[in-house]
Structure formats: C-alpha cells, structure tokens
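Ticket #4471: complex job returned nothing on first submit. Input attached below:
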Amino acid sequence: MIQMNNIVKRFGAQTVLTDVTFKVKEKEIFGMLGPSGAGKTTIINILTNQLEADGGNYSIGASPFETGLMLDEDGLYIRLNCLENLNVFADIYGIPREKSVAAIKSVGLFDAAKKTVNTLSKGMRQRLALARAILHEPKILFLDEPTGGLDPATARGIHKLILDLCANGATVFLTTHNMEEAVKLCDKVALLHKGKIVEQGSPAEICERHNAIKTVPDLESVFIKLTGVELE
Amino acid sequence: MRSIKAIFTKQAKDMFRNPMVLVQFIIFPAVALIMTELIAKSNEDIATNMFVTMMAAIFAGMALVTATAGVIAEDKERKSLRFLVMAGVKPHEYLIGTGGFILLAGLIASIAFGLIGVFTGIEFARFLTVMIMAAAASIILGAAIGIVSKNQQAATALAMPIAVILGFAPMIASFNETVAKAAGILYTQQLNVIVNDFSANFTKAITVIGINIAVLIILFVLAYQKKGLRG
Ligand SMILES: Nc1ncnc2c1ncn2[C@@H]1O[C@H](COP(=O)(O)OP(=O)(O)O)[C@@H](O)[C@H]1O
Ligand SMILES: [Mg+2]
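Support reply: We reran it on our side without changes. The output follows.
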C-alpha cells in the first residue's frame, strides 16, 4: 500500500534522511518510532508530496483524494466552529454535509459541534483534526504524532479510533515518540534514529531479536541499545 | 467551482468574526461619513466630497492590500492552506474564493462611499468602476505578498511600506509635477485622478488600472511559483 525505497533527503548541508526503506501492507497500522528530530515528519511530508526527496522513490496505493492526514499543525480555522470546519472540506470533496456530523460524532465531539475552535482544548482540537482527516473515508491515513502532547485518557480515545478505522479497512501510517503507543497500536514499526531506520518489524519480533521481552515487548530498551539515546 | 464556493463561504463566515479585518471595511467609510457631515458640508473652502475621495482611495489602494496579505498569510501560517492543497484545491480556486469575497466586501464598501459622496448617475458609475478595479489590483497584490510571507507578521512588514507608497504617491503627486508623472503609471494614482475629477480621461484611467492588474497577476504567479501555497 505504501512503499519507500532508499529515500534520501537533505536540507542544505544536513542530511535528514538516509536510505529510508520500508513497506506498509494494506489494513496495517505502521508506526515510525523515533525521538524528536529523527526525521519522522519529513517522511510524512515526502509521502504526502509536500516535499521532494533528493534520492530514492516511493509509491502509494491511493489517490490524494483517498488519503487523509493529520500534520504536526492542525490547520483548523480558529474562528469557525467544529462543524463549520468540517463542512468546508465536505463541500470541497463534494460529499454530503451529513458526513461532517458523522465524523464529529465518531471522534466524540458532537456536543462541542457549535464551539469555536479558539475555545477548544488541545485534545479537542486534535480530535477535530482527526475528524477532518477521516471525513471522506480515506483508504490511507497519515497521522503525524496523533497523540502528541495529549493526556493519557484523551490519547486512549484516539488509539481506539485508530484501531476502529483500521478494522474498517483503512491503512494507517503514524509517527510517534511514544513506544507504549507503538506497541499497543502498531502491527509493524520502524525505529528511526537520525534519519536512518535502525530496525523494523512487528514489535514482538523486534524485541525477541534483541532479547527485550519482559512482560510486554520493550521497544524502548531496543532503541537505547541500538542508538544509545532515549526516545523522550 | 465547488472548491471556490466552499472557500468563499468560509471566508465570508470568517471575516465577520475577525475584527482585525472587518474594521478596515468599516473604519474608512465611517471616517468619510463623519468628516463629510461634520467638516466638508459646513466648510465653504473644502470640496464636499474631499473626504469621501480621500478615504475611498486609501481604502482601495492601501487597506485592501494589507487586509488580503494578512488573510492569506494567516492561512499559510496556521497551515490551513496545506490541508486545502491536500484536498485538491488549486491555487486559482483558493485565490478566487478568498479574494472574491474580499472583493465583494470591497464593492459593498465602495457603494457606501458612493452613497456618502454626492455623486450623480454617471459619476457614480465611474466611481464604482475605478474603485472595484483598483480593489481587484490591491487584492491581487495583497495575495502575492501573503504568498511570499512566512507568517502574518512578515506579511504586515512587507505590505505596509508597499501600501503606504501606493496610497501616498497620489498625495505627493498633487504637490509635485515630476512625482505626478511617475505616479501616473500606478493604479492608485489613476483611481485618485478619477475620484477627484470625473471629467478626467476615464478611458486612460481604466486602461492603466487594467495594465496594473495584468502586471500584478504575473507578479502573483511568479510569487506562487517561487513559494507555493504550502508554506
Ligand atoms: N524545512 C526544513 N529546513 C531545514 N531543516 C529542516 C526542515 N524541516 C526539518 N528539518 C530538520 O530535519 C530534521 C528532522 O526533522 P523532522 O522530520 O521534523 O523530525 P521529527 O518529526 O522526527 O521530529 C531536524 O533536524 C530538523 O531540524
Ligand atoms: Mg515531527
């Protein structure tokens, strides 16, 4: 569904991605795990055609219309309310506005539908951004740190939504620096350090390979072992 | 067309809730009204429409540049524009949607100016024509500035001096022949010429403003190609 081959990206003299190669299968949740500055957002920006790579290639098994995304900034219209924000996009996609209501319900924001974005908490904004991403029922979702900066309860809500979406047939590519999240959600993960993938596979597989199974697979310790640095 | 309508509607809702932008559409006609009623009408030495023409020219030539630049720079700064681009919105659709509503608001303000001024039929028609053309020029210029700016602050820093030059060139021109000649190529000067004297060469004025619009469209396209809508 998504494939990246030997992608290289430079910003001036700094090489931000080196030889990044991975594959995401249909209906899989794939997590790109790495600390801040590893290059996660850059990978999403390349996959969503916002940035051009300096080498390598990639392919995506869905048209732009069939992809939904959550970026590191939510891009919401702050003076419009939740429903109005979604309706702008429903109108652009040419889908009925009822879909906006459905999306707002599915992220649990129905009671706040008429609230101006300005007045929402960070968690609510994040959920609204997710609602916008899933509004047109895309085949592929790109989620850049979907739970970044959220309290655990709100994060769990978002986790449940992502799992539901996947159960309904969506393929999810997400980035995170939270290894618990990666273990809980992802079928496959790649560990990214300074723009290089140092390990990839299912969380259990990876931990087994590195003897890091305690009670749960301990990706954090694998990461530290491979790179010498902590995730957060 | 769908996208243009969606963005136009969004812009309409947004502007009424954005005091920073809204105020610019109210303050200039309001000042024109107050000054005309309080000063011009009771003062023999001042032309009755002096404040109307002055405020209308500043509005169309300056306020619309800074307002448009601010609106577009905000969409860039908050990354709203990226989501539009990702949803398949084309640059011209975004511009027509956003700029189109600002132009409509500019038309309404122009009609207000026209009503405050004591214009007769043909004068009113000429006034509205040059106002709306100058407004279009300013909106395209503002859009180009918004596109090259990283954020709203940068947009203001760039738009202000440009708008001041465009807005004040006609005033300086009224004192200085050489400046008047040079300023003649600017749409703001032509706007000023017509609103101050409806018997002035109208064809020349709208031709010059038309050329300004064409040049500004090219400038906008260049700015877009260089910077893109994605910020
Ligand atoms: N537009 C840019 N220009 C220059 N450097 C950039 C740009 N975007 C990202 N970088 C650099 O690339 C590296 C990776 O950034 P990013 O992909 O945002 O990391 P992450 O999302 O994993 O935190 C960082 O060192 C960052 O400073
Ligand atoms: Mg990032």
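The first strand of chain A starts at residue 2 and ends at 11. Closing as resolved unless it happens again.
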